[in-house]
Each structure stands twice: as C-alpha cells, then as structure tokens.
Write a structure and sequence with these properties.
- By secondary structure, the protein is mainly α.
- 64% of the residues lie in helices and 0% in strands.
- The protein contains 21 helices and no strands.
- α16 (255-277) runs parallel beside α20 (355-377).
- The longest helix is centred in the first third of the chain and has 26 residues, at 86-111.
- The radius of gyration is 21 Å and the shape is globular.
Length: 401
Amino acid sequence: MTTGKSDISGWLVRPAGGHLWAGLAALLGALTVHTVLVTSGGGMDNAIVVDAARTWLAGGSPYDDPHFLYFPSAVVAAVPQALLPRSVLDVLVPPAVTLALALGWACALRLHRVPLGSRLAALGLLGLAAGFAPFGQLVRLGNWTVTAVLALPLCLLLASRGRWVAAGLVVGVAVALKPLLAPMALLFCFARRWRALAVLVAVPSAASAGAALLLPDPTGFFTRTLPFLLHGDDAFVRLYEASPAAVLPRLGVPGAPAALLGLLAAAAGVVCAYRRWHGPGPVPQRLAETAAGLMLAAFLVSRPSYNHYLLVVLPLLLAGLPHAGAVARRPWFWLALVPQLPGVTWPWLEPARRRAFRDAFTLCALAVTVAHHCVRGTRGTRGAGEPEGTPGRARAAVESA
C-alpha cells in the first residue's frame, strides 16, 4: 500500500476528520429513518421470509409462496422475527441491515489492511450509500442478501489470516440463511482447503435437513423452488433479473442461445478466477479478486440475479483501492457503476420494468473488467517477500505457516 504524499493512496489511508464521520452518520441515519417510516414488515423481501415462517408456525408449507427461494433452514432462522409484531420489525430491520452493510465494509477494509479510521473508510461507505442505488434498495427491501454482504468479506478476512475452517463455517452459515455464497466452495477447492470445504458443505446441509424434517412439505425446496430457479418462468421476477439469460430474450434473442451465452461467460469467469488465485500478488488481494470473479460469474447464470447482489463483491474491490494494481483503479470499474447512480434519468429506461437493462450492463461490464484483470492486470506484481515463480502449492504452504 502506498502511503506517500505523492499518491492518492496516501491521502486515502490517513485518518478521516470528524466532519466526514458526521456526514456519514447523517446520511446513514436519514436512509434508515426514512426506511423505517415507509416500509412494512421491515421491507418487502424480508416480509417474504418472515411470512414463510409464520405460515410454517400456522401449520402450512412455506413453499406455497413461489417467491420463497430459500433453504428450509431459513424458515427456522426467521422464526424470531415471525414472533414479533410487524410494527416492531419496521423499526428493527432497517437499522440491522444498515449495520450489517457497514460491518461488511469494515471487514473488507481490514482484509486489505486499510485502517478503519481512514478517509477511505468514511468516504467509501459514504459513496456506496449515496452513489450506488442498490445500497438504498437493499436497506428498503430488507433482503437477506445482506447476510452474504457481511459473510463474504468476513470469510476472506479469516482466510487471509490462515483461519480457513472458521472461514468455511462463516460461509456455511450464510448459505444456510441464503444460498447466494454457494459458489465460494470453488475458492476452497482452488486453495485445497478440504477440511474447511467439508465444514462449508456440512453446516447448511445439516441445518436444512434438520429443518426440512419439521416442515409439512420436507421436499418443497426440490419440488417447487428448484424448478422455479432453473426455469425462471415468473413474469414479475423476470422484469428485475439482470443475468443475460433473462435480459437477452427481452431483446429478441431466443432463450436457449441466451442461456448458453450466459453459461459460457460464467465458465470463462471461473477460469479467470482460477488464474487469479494462482497468480501473483499479496494474499488479501488475490482472495478478494478471486472471490469477486467467482461471484460475478455465478451472477451471470443465476436465476434470479438482482442488482443488489453486486453489493456482495463491490466493497471487496473498492476497499483495495489504495493498492497498486487494484481492480478499482481501472476506468471500466467506475464506468460499469455509472448506470447505478441514483437520481439519474436514462432515456427509454425510466420505467422500473426496464431497470434490468441498466443492471445487466453493470453486471456484465463489471464481470468482464474483473475477469480481464484476473488474467492480465496483475502480471509482474508480486507480493512482498514472494519470489518470482513461486508455485501455487508452495505459496499455499507459506500462507498457512
């Protein structure tokens, strides 16, 4: 990390003044209070999970709602909220989501060894809240994606310190709540951390199997939700999906070629992420960029794929800004985010049902930028003390020491 006065990085990592923290507190406070005043049940998406738990407590099947896309373990996890009045959820959920987003940002900063009291810490979260529309949308929706936004940087922070089993546990718990981080299993395969991978798989498997036995429809996830996810035939959901398989058919491309294109792009993204893991550079940077590449590849084929999923990877990449060769120093990283500026009216894309075109551009441009960076952007950049030509297996032994 460059801390000299001649580089912007030095300015970013120095302590932030009180005025920056005051502005950040005012912005997050306004967003949270406004959400408390206008939402119901803590947010539309949170209400879906809570209503599923209430349905189960009343003796019904949570999977009667086609929009409940979670494992059975999420039903049990939502029970504490289901026992609370909606008026209480209105007050509790928005601050909890905002706090989780802030903690995820803090973990991303520590992963890159950026001080929590730095200017980047304050300005980065301020920029995400004020300049990235999905941030506010996630707070207003109360979507459980926020668990992944916190869990992924925490997992990588633990892994960077050699605590891979704990990292696997964190991802496993997050997957049990929402299966968004399932692609992270590939990172553990890349790193040959088999015990940690076993923990990652065992936690959601055991939690879901145990919870399914308590449901009136134990196989509901496989008989109802999984077919829905594979086919994505819900007209309402399709309007907000950003993956190529959902957007291209709306532009006249047949469904099969669109799905194939998305699958090929995702496969290429996984290959690029693999190259990045075995490439040069400090361990935290390789962890962040490999994880971001894997998650973006998954978003290209997942059904559904929403714009707030990008908050899972964006803090990881943005927090690496002070480091030379970071993805966040590439022009296309910032250009990809332009369609997500709040308050900007885009011709022919104003209606909410056309928002997916803007989201698809951001997703695809960011995925291509990260993939290109993973393959070519860090050549010649070696981690401190890492000799030229260090093989992946030997480097892993050094990292675990």
